[in-house]
Design a protein that fits this description.
Mean pLDDT: 96
Number of helices: 0
Largest sheet: 7 strands, mixed
Radius of gyration: 13 Å
Helix content: under 10%
Distance between the termini: 40 Å
Oligomer: single chain
Number of strands: 11
Structural class: mainly beta
């Protein structure tokens, strides 16, 4: 059974860091594109970063440029989202999602989703 499980969320002070994990089971992660999305209360789900099956990365949110990094560990079948210099506006539920091959921007283009992990940036 195909499954994505996010972990690593929590409460962090502004300026702090977190590393989110997206662990895959039931499929080989590096055969697919994996995107990270986030949804804040009252807002639409937005794309953050994506890594394609080819290993190329795409940044969808200008607000995270230079602060967030996406990476993949094929041996662990896991994709990571390293988040640095966190700001209160980064507060959201973060999701990872899977689709074939490349990285589209729209969430509707993705086939499978994890359950999400809450990230709260507050002093």
């Amino acid at each position: 059974q195909l499954q994505l499980v996010e972990s690593g969320g929590g409460l962090v002070q502004p300026g702090g860091s977190l590393r989110l994990s997206c662990a895959a089971s039931g499929f080989t992660l590096n055969y697919y594109a994996i995107g990270w999305f986030r949804q804040a209360p009252g807002k639409e789900r937005e794309g953050v970063l994506c890594i394609s099956k080819y290993g190329s990365t795409t940044n969808y949110a200008d607000s995270v440029k230079g602060r967030f990094i996406i990476s993949r560990d094929n041996a662990k079948n896991t994709v990571y989202l390293q988040m640095n210099s966190l700001k209160p506006e980064d507060t959201a539920v973060y999701y990872c999602a899977q689709r074939d091959g490349w990285c589209p921007r729209s969430p509707v283009e993705y086939d499978y989703w994890g359950q999400g992990t809450q990230v709260t940036v507050s002093s």
